[in-house]
Amino acid sequence: MRGAFGDAVKNVFGNVRGAPAEGRGDRRPTRLDLLFSLAVGVAGLVESFGRQGPDPGQVQEPVPMAAGAVAAGTLLLFRGRLPVTMLLALIATGVAVQAVAGTGYYPAWHFYSTLVLVHTVAGAAELRSRRGLAGLGCVLAAYGFLQTLQRNDVAEVMIGAIFVGVAYGSGILLRRQTDRTLRLAERAARLEVEREERARRAVEEERARIARELHDVVSHNVSVMTLHAGGARMLLGDGHERERDLLLGVERAGREAVEELQLMLGVLRDHGDYGDYGDRDGHGGYGDRGPGGPQPDLDRLEDLLAQVREAGLDVRLRTAGEPRPLPPGLGLSAYRVVQEALTNVLKHARAARTDVVVGYGPAELVVEVVDDGAGRTPPSADAADAGGGGGHDPATAGPGRSRGGHGLIGMRERAAMHGGELSAGPVPGGGYRVAARFPLAGTAETG
Protein backbone atom coordinates (compact mmCIF):
# COMPACT_ATOMS: atom_id res chain seq x y z
CA MET A 1 0.00 0.00 0.00
CA ARG A 2 2.74 2.39 0.92
CA GLY A 3 4.56 1.89 -2.38
CA ALA A 4 1.41 2.22 -4.48
CA PHE A 5 0.32 5.39 -2.68
CA GLY A 6 3.74 6.97 -2.97
CA ASP A 7 4.06 6.04 -6.64
CA ALA A 8 0.68 7.60 -7.38
CA VAL A 9 1.68 10.88 -5.76
CA LYS A 10 5.02 10.85 -7.55
CA ASN A 11 3.30 10.32 -10.88
CA VAL A 12 0.96 13.24 -10.27
CA PHE A 13 3.68 15.68 -9.34
CA GLY A 14 6.13 14.22 -11.83
CA ASN A 15 3.75 15.18 -14.62
CA VAL A 16 3.88 18.79 -13.43
CA ARG A 17 7.56 19.31 -12.87
CA GLY A 18 9.17 16.63 -15.01
CA ALA A 19 11.50 13.77 -14.17
CA PRO A 20 13.68 14.16 -11.08
CA ALA A 21 16.91 13.44 -12.87
CA GLU A 22 18.28 13.98 -16.37
CA GLY A 23 17.89 10.96 -18.56
CA ARG A 24 16.25 8.75 -15.94
CA GLY A 25 13.00 6.86 -16.38
CA ASP A 26 10.89 6.39 -19.48
CA ARG A 27 8.23 9.00 -18.76
CA ARG A 28 6.07 9.67 -21.80
CA PRO A 29 4.92 13.16 -22.75
CA THR A 30 1.97 14.28 -20.68
CA ARG A 31 -1.07 16.26 -21.70
CA LEU A 32 0.59 19.36 -20.28
CA ASP A 33 3.66 18.73 -22.47
CA LEU A 34 1.40 18.29 -25.48
CA LEU A 35 -0.44 21.51 -24.64
CA PHE A 36 2.83 23.47 -24.42
CA SER A 37 4.04 21.90 -27.65
CA LEU A 38 0.88 22.79 -29.55
CA ALA A 39 0.83 26.30 -28.13
CA VAL A 40 4.38 27.07 -29.16
CA GLY A 41 4.09 25.37 -32.56
CA VAL A 42 0.78 26.96 -33.54
CA ALA A 43 1.73 30.38 -32.16
CA GLY A 44 5.05 30.19 -34.02
CA LEU A 45 3.33 29.37 -37.30
CA VAL A 46 0.89 32.26 -36.83
CA GLU A 47 3.78 34.56 -35.94
CA SER A 48 5.95 33.45 -38.87
CA PHE A 49 3.35 33.81 -41.61
CA GLY A 50 1.14 36.42 -39.98
CA ARG A 51 3.98 38.92 -39.62
CA GLN A 52 5.60 38.20 -42.93
CA GLY A 53 6.92 41.28 -44.69
CA PRO A 54 10.02 43.18 -45.84
CA ASP A 55 9.82 45.99 -43.28
CA PRO A 56 11.82 46.11 -40.04
CA GLY A 57 10.06 44.20 -37.27
CA GLN A 58 8.52 41.78 -39.77
CA VAL A 59 9.48 38.22 -40.66
CA GLN A 60 11.39 38.28 -43.91
CA GLU A 61 12.05 34.53 -44.04
CA PRO A 62 8.87 32.83 -42.72
CA VAL A 63 9.68 29.24 -43.70
CA PRO A 64 12.84 28.75 -41.55
CA MET A 65 11.16 30.73 -38.77
CA ALA A 66 8.10 28.42 -38.91
CA ALA A 67 10.33 25.35 -39.02
CA GLY A 68 12.12 26.60 -35.92
CA ALA A 69 8.78 27.08 -34.12
CA VAL A 70 7.70 23.53 -34.94
CA ALA A 71 11.07 22.20 -33.76
CA ALA A 72 10.80 24.16 -30.51
CA GLY A 73 7.31 22.76 -29.91
CA THR A 74 8.60 19.25 -30.52
CA LEU A 75 11.40 19.76 -27.99
CA LEU A 76 8.84 20.65 -25.32
CA LEU A 77 7.32 17.18 -25.64
CA PHE A 78 10.46 15.72 -24.03
CA ARG A 79 11.12 18.42 -21.45
CA GLY A 80 10.18 16.15 -18.53
CA ARG A 81 12.66 13.42 -19.40
CA LEU A 82 15.59 15.47 -20.75
CA PRO A 83 15.12 19.09 -19.59
CA VAL A 84 18.76 20.21 -19.86
CA THR A 85 19.25 18.48 -23.20
CA MET A 86 16.10 20.05 -24.58
CA LEU A 87 17.23 23.52 -23.45
CA LEU A 88 20.57 23.06 -25.22
CA ALA A 89 18.74 21.78 -28.30
CA LEU A 90 16.53 24.89 -28.24
CA ILE A 91 19.62 27.10 -28.23
CA ALA A 92 20.96 25.13 -31.19
CA THR A 93 17.64 25.54 -32.98
CA GLY A 94 17.78 29.30 -32.42
CA VAL A 95 21.33 29.45 -33.75
CA ALA A 96 20.28 27.54 -36.90
CA VAL A 97 17.24 29.76 -37.52
CA GLN A 98 19.37 32.86 -36.92
CA ALA A 99 21.94 31.63 -39.43
CA VAL A 100 19.31 31.12 -42.14
CA ALA A 101 16.82 33.93 -41.46
CA GLY A 102 19.17 36.57 -40.03
CA THR A 103 18.86 38.60 -36.82
CA GLY A 104 16.29 41.10 -37.92
CA TYR A 105 13.39 39.60 -35.95
CA TYR A 106 13.02 38.54 -32.31
CA PRO A 107 10.87 35.35 -32.36
CA ALA A 108 8.39 35.23 -29.50
CA TRP A 109 8.08 31.43 -29.74
CA HIS A 110 11.77 31.10 -28.84
CA PHE A 111 11.32 33.27 -25.76
CA TYR A 112 8.25 31.33 -24.57
CA SER A 113 9.94 27.98 -25.14
CA THR A 114 12.97 29.17 -23.19
CA LEU A 115 10.83 30.14 -20.19
CA VAL A 116 9.09 26.73 -20.14
CA LEU A 117 12.37 24.84 -20.34
CA VAL A 118 14.08 27.06 -17.75
CA HIS A 119 11.23 26.30 -15.32
CA THR A 120 11.56 22.57 -16.04
CA VAL A 121 15.36 22.57 -15.61
CA ALA A 122 15.06 24.33 -12.25
CA GLY A 123 12.56 21.75 -11.02
CA ALA A 124 14.55 18.73 -12.21
CA ALA A 125 17.44 18.76 -9.71
CA GLU A 126 18.61 20.44 -6.53
CA LEU A 127 20.75 23.48 -7.25
CA ARG A 128 23.52 22.26 -4.94
CA SER A 129 23.94 19.06 -6.97
CA ARG A 130 26.10 18.70 -10.07
CA ARG A 131 23.03 18.36 -12.27
CA GLY A 132 21.60 21.47 -10.68
CA LEU A 133 24.77 23.48 -11.36
CA ALA A 134 24.90 22.19 -14.93
CA GLY A 135 21.27 23.20 -15.39
CA LEU A 136 21.99 26.69 -14.05
CA GLY A 137 24.84 27.04 -16.52
CA CYS A 138 22.53 26.08 -19.38
CA VAL A 139 19.93 28.60 -18.15
CA LEU A 140 22.54 31.39 -18.20
CA ALA A 141 23.62 30.32 -21.69
CA ALA A 142 19.99 30.37 -22.87
CA TYR A 143 19.50 33.86 -21.43
CA GLY A 144 22.70 35.06 -23.07
CA PHE A 145 21.57 33.70 -26.41
CA LEU A 146 18.26 35.57 -26.10
CA GLN A 147 20.22 38.81 -26.04
CA THR A 148 21.81 38.01 -29.42
CA LEU A 149 18.52 37.70 -31.29
CA GLN A 150 18.26 41.48 -31.64
CA ARG A 151 19.77 44.65 -30.32
CA ASN A 152 18.21 45.22 -26.90
CA ASP A 153 18.32 48.26 -24.71
CA VAL A 154 18.92 48.08 -20.96
CA ALA A 155 15.21 47.89 -20.18
CA GLU A 156 14.71 44.96 -22.53
CA VAL A 157 17.69 43.14 -21.02
CA MET A 158 16.29 43.62 -17.54
CA ILE A 159 12.80 42.51 -18.56
CA GLY A 160 14.23 39.34 -20.05
CA ALA A 161 16.25 38.73 -16.87
CA ILE A 162 13.15 39.17 -14.72
CA PHE A 163 11.09 36.67 -16.73
CA VAL A 164 13.90 34.10 -16.85
CA GLY A 165 14.57 34.57 -13.13
CA VAL A 166 10.91 34.10 -12.25
CA ALA A 167 10.71 30.96 -14.40
CA TYR A 168 13.82 29.54 -12.73
CA GLY A 169 12.68 30.49 -9.20
CA SER A 170 9.20 29.04 -9.70
CA GLY A 171 10.76 25.75 -10.77
CA ILE A 172 12.81 25.64 -7.57
CA LEU A 173 9.81 26.45 -5.40
CA LEU A 174 7.67 23.83 -7.13
CA ARG A 175 10.35 21.17 -6.70
CA ARG A 176 10.69 21.90 -2.97
CA GLN A 177 6.94 21.91 -2.46
CA THR A 178 6.62 18.67 -4.38
CA ASP A 179 9.38 17.02 -2.35
CA ARG A 180 7.69 18.10 0.87
CA THR A 181 4.34 16.79 -0.36
CA LEU A 182 5.91 13.46 -1.31
CA ARG A 183 7.49 13.14 2.14
CA LEU A 184 4.16 13.88 3.82
CA ALA A 185 2.37 11.42 1.53
CA GLU A 186 4.88 8.69 2.28
CA ARG A 187 4.60 9.39 6.00
CA ALA A 188 0.80 9.28 5.79
CA ALA A 189 0.96 5.99 3.90
CA ARG A 190 3.36 4.57 6.49
CA LEU A 191 1.12 5.66 9.36
CA GLU A 192 -1.90 4.17 7.62
CA VAL A 193 -0.12 0.83 7.23
CA GLU A 194 0.93 0.93 10.89
CA ARG A 195 -2.61 1.80 11.98
CA GLU A 196 -4.07 -1.10 10.02
CA GLU A 197 -1.43 -3.41 11.44
CA ARG A 198 -2.23 -2.33 14.99
CA ALA A 199 -5.95 -2.85 14.35
CA ARG A 200 -5.25 -6.29 12.88
CA ARG A 201 -3.13 -7.24 15.89
CA ALA A 202 -5.86 -5.98 18.22
CA VAL A 203 -8.42 -8.23 16.53
CA GLU A 204 -6.06 -11.20 16.69
CA GLU A 205 -5.28 -10.60 20.34
CA GLU A 206 -8.97 -10.24 21.21
CA ARG A 207 -9.81 -13.46 19.39
CA ALA A 208 -6.95 -15.23 21.15
CA ARG A 209 -8.24 -13.93 24.49
CA ILE A 210 -11.75 -15.15 23.66
CA ALA A 211 -10.32 -18.52 22.63
CA ARG A 212 -8.51 -18.82 25.95
CA GLU A 213 -11.68 -18.08 27.88
CA LEU A 214 -13.75 -20.49 25.80
CA HIS A 215 -11.07 -23.10 26.36
CA ASP A 216 -11.48 -22.71 30.10
CA VAL A 217 -15.28 -22.80 29.94
CA VAL A 218 -15.56 -25.77 27.57
CA SER A 219 -12.82 -27.73 29.32
CA HIS A 220 -14.49 -27.21 32.68
CA ASN A 221 -17.93 -28.28 31.47
CA VAL A 222 -16.66 -31.30 29.57
CA SER A 223 -14.63 -32.37 32.60
CA VAL A 224 -17.74 -32.08 34.79
CA MET A 225 -19.72 -34.13 32.28
CA THR A 226 -17.00 -36.77 32.26
CA LEU A 227 -16.93 -36.97 36.04
CA HIS A 228 -20.72 -37.27 36.20
CA ALA A 229 -20.66 -40.03 33.62
CA GLY A 230 -18.00 -41.84 35.64
CA GLY A 231 -19.98 -41.43 38.82
CA ALA A 232 -23.12 -42.75 37.18
CA ARG A 233 -21.19 -45.76 35.87
CA MET A 234 -19.86 -46.58 39.34
CA LEU A 235 -23.39 -46.40 40.81
CA LEU A 236 -24.81 -48.93 38.35
CA GLY A 237 -25.33 -52.35 39.78
CA ASP A 238 -24.84 -55.73 38.19
CA GLY A 239 -26.67 -56.50 34.99
CA HIS A 240 -26.08 -53.15 33.37
CA GLU A 241 -23.07 -53.99 31.23
CA ARG A 242 -24.44 -52.18 28.17
CA GLU A 243 -25.06 -49.02 30.16
CA ARG A 244 -21.59 -49.28 31.69
CA ASP A 245 -20.02 -49.53 28.22
CA LEU A 246 -21.97 -46.51 26.99
CA LEU A 247 -20.96 -44.42 29.99
CA LEU A 248 -17.37 -45.56 29.64
CA GLY A 249 -17.46 -44.39 26.03
CA VAL A 250 -18.74 -41.01 27.19
CA GLU A 251 -15.87 -40.78 29.67
CA ARG A 252 -13.29 -41.62 27.01
CA ALA A 253 -14.78 -39.11 24.55
CA GLY A 254 -14.82 -36.43 27.23
CA ARG A 255 -11.19 -37.01 28.19
CA GLU A 256 -10.14 -37.01 24.53
CA ALA A 257 -12.05 -33.77 23.94
CA VAL A 258 -10.34 -32.09 26.88
CA GLU A 259 -6.93 -33.29 25.68
CA GLU A 260 -7.59 -31.99 22.16
CA LEU A 261 -8.74 -28.65 23.54
CA GLN A 262 -5.56 -28.40 25.57
CA LEU A 263 -3.44 -29.20 22.53
CA MET A 264 -5.30 -26.80 20.21
CA LEU A 265 -6.07 -23.85 22.49
CA GLY A 266 -4.13 -24.32 25.70
CA VAL A 267 -0.96 -23.09 24.01
CA LEU A 268 -2.56 -19.65 23.87
CA ARG A 269 -1.98 -19.32 27.61
CA ASP A 270 1.74 -19.17 26.96
CA HIS A 271 1.50 -16.18 24.60
CA GLY A 272 0.66 -12.92 26.29
CA ASP A 273 -1.38 -11.92 29.27
CA TYR A 274 -5.08 -12.26 29.97
CA GLY A 275 -6.18 -9.15 28.23
CA ASP A 276 -5.78 -5.40 28.40
CA TYR A 277 -8.38 -4.88 31.13
CA GLY A 278 -5.67 -4.79 33.76
CA ASP A 279 -6.65 -3.41 37.13
CA ARG A 280 -4.45 -2.08 39.86
CA ASP A 281 -3.69 -5.61 41.11
CA GLY A 282 -2.52 -6.84 37.73
CA HIS A 283 -5.43 -9.23 37.17
CA GLY A 284 -7.53 -9.50 34.06
CA GLY A 285 -9.65 -6.48 34.90
CA TYR A 286 -12.34 -5.23 37.23
CA GLY A 287 -14.01 -8.27 38.75
CA ASP A 288 -11.52 -10.89 37.46
CA ARG A 289 -9.72 -13.34 39.68
CA GLY A 290 -6.72 -13.82 37.46
CA PRO A 291 -5.85 -16.62 35.06
CA GLY A 292 -6.30 -19.37 37.59
CA GLY A 293 -9.78 -18.41 38.83
CA PRO A 294 -13.18 -19.26 37.42
CA GLN A 295 -14.41 -17.23 34.49
CA PRO A 296 -16.89 -14.49 35.44
CA ASP A 297 -20.46 -14.10 34.21
CA LEU A 298 -23.41 -11.81 34.89
CA ASP A 299 -23.82 -13.24 38.42
CA ARG A 300 -20.65 -11.36 39.35
CA LEU A 301 -21.72 -7.96 38.05
CA GLU A 302 -22.18 -6.63 41.58
CA ASP A 303 -18.53 -7.43 42.38
CA LEU A 304 -17.49 -5.64 39.19
CA LEU A 305 -19.59 -2.58 39.99
CA ALA A 306 -18.26 -2.48 43.55
CA GLN A 307 -14.70 -2.20 42.25
CA VAL A 308 -15.73 0.48 39.77
CA ARG A 309 -17.37 2.47 42.57
CA GLU A 310 -14.11 2.28 44.52
CA ALA A 311 -12.46 3.96 41.52
CA GLY A 312 -14.79 6.95 42.01
CA LEU A 313 -17.62 6.34 39.53
CA ASP A 314 -21.26 6.33 40.60
CA VAL A 315 -22.61 3.28 38.79
CA ARG A 316 -26.01 1.67 39.24
CA LEU A 317 -27.33 -1.68 38.10
CA ARG A 318 -30.88 -2.39 36.98
CA THR A 319 -32.20 -5.78 35.88
CA ALA A 320 -35.23 -6.01 33.59
CA GLY A 321 -37.10 -9.24 33.07
CA GLU A 322 -36.68 -12.54 34.86
CA PRO A 323 -33.02 -13.60 35.23
CA ARG A 324 -32.33 -17.14 34.12
CA PRO A 325 -29.27 -19.32 33.61
CA LEU A 326 -27.16 -18.53 30.57
CA PRO A 327 -24.67 -20.60 28.62
CA PRO A 328 -21.23 -20.00 30.19
CA GLY A 329 -19.74 -18.56 27.00
CA LEU A 330 -22.61 -16.12 26.49
CA GLY A 331 -22.60 -15.02 30.12
CA LEU A 332 -18.87 -14.45 29.95
CA SER A 333 -19.17 -12.36 26.77
CA ALA A 334 -21.95 -10.23 28.24
CA TYR A 335 -19.88 -9.67 31.38
CA ARG A 336 -16.86 -8.64 29.29
CA VAL A 337 -18.93 -6.13 27.32
CA VAL A 338 -20.06 -4.43 30.53
CA GLN A 339 -16.52 -4.60 31.90
CA GLU A 340 -14.93 -2.96 28.86
CA ALA A 341 -17.66 -0.31 28.60
CA LEU A 342 -17.12 0.67 32.26
CA THR A 343 -13.37 0.76 31.68
CA ASN A 344 -13.93 3.21 28.83
CA VAL A 345 -16.13 5.38 31.04
CA LEU A 346 -13.41 5.54 33.69
CA LYS A 347 -10.72 6.36 31.12
CA HIS A 348 -12.46 8.77 28.81
CA ALA A 349 -15.93 9.94 29.79
CA ARG A 350 -15.52 12.23 32.82
CA ALA A 351 -18.94 10.95 33.84
CA ALA A 352 -20.72 11.63 37.14
CA ARG A 353 -23.08 8.68 36.81
CA THR A 354 -23.35 5.49 34.79
CA ASP A 355 -26.32 3.15 34.49
CA VAL A 356 -25.92 -0.53 33.69
CA VAL A 357 -29.07 -2.29 32.49
CA VAL A 358 -29.35 -6.06 31.98
CA GLY A 359 -32.54 -7.02 30.17
CA TYR A 360 -33.77 -10.64 29.89
CA GLY A 361 -36.23 -10.85 27.02
CA PRO A 362 -38.11 -13.87 25.62
CA ALA A 363 -35.56 -14.32 22.84
CA GLU A 364 -32.63 -12.06 23.62
CA LEU A 365 -30.37 -10.71 26.33
CA VAL A 366 -29.57 -6.99 26.24
CA VAL A 367 -26.78 -5.37 28.24
CA GLU A 368 -26.57 -1.60 28.16
CA VAL A 369 -24.12 0.89 29.66
CA VAL A 370 -25.10 4.57 29.55
CA ASP A 371 -22.99 7.39 31.02
CA ASP A 372 -23.61 11.12 31.31
CA GLY A 373 -20.03 12.18 30.58
CA ALA A 374 -18.94 14.88 28.17
CA GLY A 375 -15.75 13.07 27.24
CA ARG A 376 -12.27 14.45 27.10
CA THR A 377 -10.10 15.98 24.41
CA PRO A 378 -9.50 13.25 21.85
CA PRO A 379 -5.97 11.91 21.68
CA SER A 380 -3.88 12.18 18.55
CA ALA A 381 -4.33 9.69 15.76
CA ASP A 382 -1.26 7.74 16.81
CA ALA A 383 -2.29 7.64 20.45
CA ALA A 384 -5.81 6.55 19.60
CA ASP A 385 -4.48 3.77 17.44
CA ALA A 386 -1.97 2.59 19.96
CA GLY A 387 -4.03 3.01 23.08
CA GLY A 388 -6.59 0.35 22.48
CA GLY A 389 -8.99 1.64 25.07
CA GLY A 390 -11.20 4.08 23.26
CA GLY A 391 -14.01 1.74 22.51
CA HIS A 392 -16.17 4.24 20.63
CA ASP A 393 -17.47 3.94 17.16
CA PRO A 394 -15.61 6.24 14.74
CA ALA A 395 -18.78 6.83 12.83
CA THR A 396 -20.76 7.99 15.83
CA ALA A 397 -18.23 9.25 18.33
CA GLY A 398 -18.98 12.78 19.39
CA PRO A 399 -16.63 15.58 20.43
CA GLY A 400 -14.36 14.59 23.22
CA ARG A 401 -14.61 10.88 22.54
CA SER A 402 -11.71 8.76 21.36
CA ARG A 403 -12.41 7.09 18.06
CA GLY A 404 -12.13 3.53 16.88
CA GLY A 405 -10.45 2.09 19.97
CA HIS A 406 -9.56 -1.57 20.25
CA GLY A 407 -12.03 -1.99 23.16
CA LEU A 408 -14.92 -1.54 20.73
CA ILE A 409 -13.36 -4.11 18.42
CA GLY A 410 -13.31 -6.63 21.27
CA MET A 411 -16.92 -5.93 22.26
CA ARG A 412 -18.09 -6.34 18.67
CA GLU A 413 -16.18 -9.61 18.40
CA ARG A 414 -17.82 -10.96 21.53
CA ALA A 415 -21.31 -10.01 20.41
CA ALA A 416 -20.81 -11.38 16.90
CA MET A 417 -19.45 -14.66 18.30
CA HIS A 418 -22.94 -15.45 19.67
CA GLY A 419 -24.84 -14.10 16.67
CA GLY A 420 -25.55 -10.78 18.35
CA GLU A 421 -24.73 -7.19 17.58
CA LEU A 422 -23.30 -4.16 19.34
CA SER A 423 -24.15 -0.49 18.93
CA ALA A 424 -22.36 2.50 20.41
CA GLY A 425 -22.84 6.23 20.10
CA PRO A 426 -23.72 9.50 21.83
CA VAL A 427 -27.16 10.00 23.36
CA PRO A 428 -29.29 13.16 23.08
CA GLY A 429 -28.54 15.64 25.83
CA GLY A 430 -25.01 14.36 26.41
CA GLY A 431 -23.45 11.09 27.38
CA TYR A 432 -22.65 7.85 25.61
CA ARG A 433 -24.42 4.51 25.22
CA VAL A 434 -23.05 1.05 24.54
CA ALA A 435 -25.61 -1.72 24.00
CA ALA A 436 -25.09 -5.38 23.09
CA ARG A 437 -27.83 -7.82 22.08
CA PHE A 438 -27.38 -11.58 22.38
CA PRO A 439 -30.01 -14.00 21.00
CA LEU A 440 -31.30 -16.47 23.57
CA ALA A 441 -33.03 -19.00 21.31
CA GLY A 442 -32.92 -22.38 23.02
CA THR A 443 -31.13 -21.25 26.17
CA ALA A 444 -33.94 -22.44 28.40
CA GLU A 445 -33.24 -25.98 27.33
CA THR A 446 -29.46 -25.76 27.19
CA GLY A 447 -28.94 -23.61 30.26
UniProtKB/TrEMBL annotation:
> Which keywords accompany this UniProt record?
ATP-binding, Coiled coil, Kinase, Membrane, Nucleotide-binding, Phosphoprotein, Transferase, Transmembrane, Transmembrane helix, Two-component regulatory system
Query: What region holds the Histidine kinase/HSP90-like ATPase domain?
Result: 333-441
Provide the E.C. number(s) assigned to this enzyme.
2.7.13.3
Q: State which residue ranges cross the membrane.
A: 32-50, 62-78, 85-103, 155-174
Ranges for domain Signal transduction histidine kinase subgroup 3 dimerisation and phosphoacceptor: 206-271
Taken from the record, one Pfam family name reads HATPase_c
As one GO molecular function, the record gives: ATP binding
Query: What InterPro entries does this protein map onto?
Result: HATPase_C_sf, HATPase_dom, Sensor_HK_TwoCompSys, Sig_transdc_His_kin_sub3_dim/P
Catalytic activity of the protein: ATP + protein L-histidine = ADP + protein N-phospho-L-histidine
Q: What CDD domains has UniProt attached to this entry?
A: HATPase_UhpB-NarQ-NarX-like
GO annotations of cellular component type:
membrane
**Disordered: region residues:** 276-296, 373-407
Coiled-coil segments, which residues? 186-213
Q: What is this protein called?
A: histidine kinase
Upper lineage: Bacteria, Bacillati, Actinomycetota, Actinomycetes, Streptosporangiales
